[in-house]
Amino acid sequence: MGYLVAASLSEALDALGRPDAAVIAGGTDWFPAQGSRPLKGDLVDITRVPGLRGITQDAGGWRIGGATTWTDLIRADLPPAFDGIKAAAREVGSIQIQNAGTVAGNLCNASPAADGVPPLLTLGAVVELASTRGIRRMGLSEFLKGPRQTARMPGEVLTALIIPDLPVGAQGTFLKLGARHYLVISIAMVAALVTLDRGRIVQAAVAVGSCSATAQRLPALEADLTGRSAADVLAAGAGVILPAHLAPLAPIGDVRGSADYRMEAASTLCARALHMAIEQGGQSHG
To answer: 170-224, pLDDT tens digit by residue?
Structure first.
């Protein structure tokens, strides 16, 4: 077994063509997942590849490099639309994990309880994958196939997340329910992104995690919110969420909570996340 700290993307991609080669960045998910099994094949570390770490903006939106850590994201100067993913970043393990773990690694691990996925879904994130065959892009929802399953092919590296340009005034939020406040796998979590104009919701995105095989957007809820008065949504309280809105969810029961409890928690968190987004968006841009 060898350990290669790749100096360029082409070097990393060439090395990943070898049998049993695996790509790592922070390794905070990859190494624990190996358990007591002996390691085999080569490890290709991409943390030193130029251009893979950091967040940049261009005319089309934002680019989060594949080696960008959660701490990088927390510290970045980003608009309020990114408040949800920043809040999620603060929930990813301990500060030490946030310093080493990467946003891309969290996605490639593909846990149904991955904190970063719901807010990235509301942001319309697109995954960029590179290999010796070239570059391809797909929506995050298409990339995530199921628990621990993604569309990443052998030899591919997740080089970036691309966030399309967002409306001025978009406000993101994120809420997570767990058995304790810190270092916890979630029972349910919700991200919301709301854009207000003259007191009305002109755009809304809501995603729920830990309540299905992969995190899910709630298109019926988003459609019902669009065009509504923000004041009416706030006045409706928890009643803003209808059972039909939660149809994409399929929670399971486990040691952290029953399926019914997860569904009830998701409904409550959706209402709270929307209220937070409306209130914070109104304060920032009212």
So the answer is: 999 999 997 555 555 788 999 999 999 999 999 999 999 999 999 999 999 999 9
User: Is the domain of 126 the same as that of 203?
Assistant: no
Q: Are residues 78 and 146 in the same domain?
A: yes
| Residue 120 and residue 225 share a domain | no
Domain count along the chain: 2
What domain range is 90 assigned to? 50-164
**What is the DSSP track for the chain?**
--EEE-SSHHHHHHHTTSTT-EEESS-TTHHHHHTTSPP-S-EEE-TTSTTSSSEEEETTEEEEETT-BHHHHHHS---GGGHHHHHHHTTSS-HHHHHH-BHHHHHHHT-TT-TTHHHHHHTT-EEEEEETTEEEEEEHHHHEEETTEESPPTT-EEEEEEEE---TTEEEEEEEE-SSSSS---SEEEEEEEEEETTEEEEEEEEEESSSSS-EE-HHHHHHHTT-BHHHHHHHGGGG--GGGGTT-----BTTB-HHHHHHHHHHHHHHHHHHHHHHHHHHH-
Reported pTM? 0.94
Whether 275 and 223 share a structural domain: yes
